[in-house]
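Consider the following assembly input.
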Amino acid sequence: MEITLDRVLKNFKKYRYLLFELTKKNIKLKYRRSYLGILWTLLEPILTTFVLTVVFINIRGKKDHAFPVYILTGRLLYSFFSQATKQAMKSIRSNSSMIKKVYVPKYIYPVSDVLSNFIIFLISTVVLFGAMIVFKVQPTKYILYSIIPLLQLLVLSLGMGLILATLAVFFRDMEYLWGVALMLIMYTAAIFYDAGIVSDEWKWIFNANPIFHIILNFRNCVYGHPLDMNALLISSGYSIISLVAGIVLFYKKQDKFILNI
Amino acid sequence: MSREVIRVDNIGMRFNLMEKKVDNLKEFLIKLVKNQIRYQEFWALKNISFTVNKGDRVGILGLNGAGKSTLLKIIAGVLKASEGEITVRGKIAPLLELGAGFDPQYTGAENIYLYGAMLGYPKEFISEKFNEIVEFSEIGDFINVPVKNYSSGMKARLGFSIATIVEPDILILDEVLSVGDAKFKKKSEKRILDMFDKGITVLFVSHSTEQVRRICSRAIILDKGSLIADGPVDEICKLYEEKYIDEIIVKKLKKKKKKKKKSIADTKSAQVNEPASDETGEDTVLGGEASGAAKEDI
């Protein structure tokens, strides 16, 4: 049976309600057992930003009155990326009982994990707006452009999620490897320091980081600067390549999943 | 009425059995470098071809490991065959391990929507049928309790009610359903029999020729991945009984007797026990078959 675009779309239409249900389930269950419920989405970034501000204020903070906003922008984007990819990576294994019994397009599982994390992330941006008011960062028309880096981040997370989900089926140690990779990505993404403090010979590290340029452009939008076209190009490259690679890899290997879970 | 709904064309299913299971990157790379990755091919199914027309009720007979469940999984779309083609027309309802798709933290009501969505029903349809599902499952007020607090019977009842709310074109049954207590069992059997009357197509896997005779109109026999017989149910069941069930019993009895001869040579007193141990021998054979069936279900 050939995989044609027409058939894929038809199948997606049939199962898009399942995608919605699974996304809803992930969000609902994430906070069901806690007293503060969905409030955690807001509290968590506030608390981590507070800690990071206290720890790193000496590096940059003295000349930046809105240092918490700087941290928050990086921190929010990074934590979405790490949560979404980690969850998507485990999605095939954690839904193995379903996959073995009922036919459902398998990409639904990682995609719903990324989507639910994206919605939680969008809710948590409320904190960012709050911080912008408190620290007097005036939103300009450029804030509207922030949708571009956010979409790039979503595409990147989907792509990475598909790649990792496929790899994790065959190699259980991917979870640990990706944990280490995520830590590297966090430290080299200029979340709590200024990229300017890094000397030129080490600048390539930022180019090797898939989310550095997305965070850079998102900050530009928040602080009222125009988008950096060079960074936009690099981050587009990362997003599109990872999505294409993810789809190709996932489709090639998905029939073997059931034999390995 | 003889519209073709399932066409299985030269299906083969190959499993690569790794001599030693490698499931982490470290080992994989080491073995790759040492050139030690070897697979052993195993064909669970080979050259299977048959067609099923609308309204056929096909029993699939075979010993453990004959490939029955693999065949059902391929037809249900869960597994993809290594070679050959399969065409299925119409909606399939797999009644296998009811309630396996439930999320334990979700309430019964939420799980109705989730499981319904998994089976590919649209939201409006589930909302419309919601009350009917709850009523049929006899869950009552527990519908708003997380499923992890359900008894296994309740889970199976709810699963059955959701899976059968729509009339499928093809029903897949693995062993006969034993859902809930006697009362619910009767009710669920009635629902399935009603579907039979409406000319539904059924694929039924079983070890018991008696059940197959009762339910099916046609039967096939699988042996070590090959289709060896296909025809009307009585004929095939008789063949199966002659060929396999008798054969196993005879084989095992022969073995027992050999052993006994040995032990007789050792001790004379064994002779006294002979008739009794003969009987237990036959018993264990049948018991072995039954427990094997239960295992394959898991």
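Residues 136 and 161 of chain B are 6 Å apart (CA to CA). Ask yourself how this observation constrains the way the partners meet.
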